[in-house]
Amino acid sequence: MNGYQLTFYTEQSRHHGHHTIIEWLLHEAKQLGIHGATVINCAEGTGHAGAHHAAHMLSLAEQPVQVILAVSEEEADRMLEVVKAEHVHVFFTRSPIEFGLLGDDAAKEPGKHFSLLGRRTH
Predict the structure, then answer these.
(1) Are 37 and 26 in contact (CB under 8 A)?
(2) Integer Cα distance of 80 and 86 in angstroms
(3) For residue 6, what pLDDT band results from cuts at 50, 70 and 90?
(4) How many structural domains are present in the chain?
(5) What is the DSSP letter of 17?
(6) How far apart are the C-alpha atoms of 8 and 31, rounded to whole Å?
(7) How deeply is 5 buried, as exposed, middle or buried, from its count of CB atoms within 10 A (0-12, 13-18, 19+)?
(8) Measured between alpha carbons, how far is 33 from 72 in angstroms, rounded to an integer?
(9) What is the pLDDT of residues 51-68, one digit of tens each?
(10) Radius of gyration of the chain (CA)
């Protein structure tokens, strides 16, 4: 399937209302029916205004974070419209990608989950 990778760049401590921007983006994606997102915590980065941001031993407040979504064109448009409508101040990139699901293991056993120790749970 062809679509887009939407990547939102923020910091661990940035908020929109009572939630972090990370929590807000994940919630809105779920509300729009977008079923996958990846949150990546980064060690350090330079923001679009040139400021240096990094995770520190005593505080993760300025830790850079990426929220990544692989979406259809319609989902990308809807997600960006929600962010604009809510006046969320966040940098993003939108890149064309091809994506899909390979293999059939997930379809055969949808209720199968594993704990961190590798034990099967239901």
Answers:
(1) yes
(2) 10
(3) very high
(4) 1
(5) T
(6) 17
(7) middle
(8) 11
(9) 544 555 455 556 789 999
(10) 17
As a whole number of angstroms, the distance between CA 75 and CA 2 comes to 12
Q: Tell me the average pLDDT across 96-100.
A: 94
Region for 33 from its dihedrals, namely left if φ exceeds 0, alpha if ψ lies in -120 to 50, beta otherwise: left
Cβ 52 vs Cβ 44: under 8 Å: yes
Which residue is associated with the tokens 């293999």?
A: 103
Look up the CATH number of the domain holding residue 116.
Answer: 3.30.70.120
> Contacts from 31-36 at CB under 8 Å and sequence distance 24+?
32/75, 32/78, 32/79, 32/82, 33/75, 34/69, 34/71, 34/75, 34/79, 36/69, 36/70
Q: Which domain holds residue 96?
A: 2-121
- Residue 2: partners with Cβ closer than 8 Å, 6 or more residues away: 96, 97, 98
pTM for the model stands at 0.74
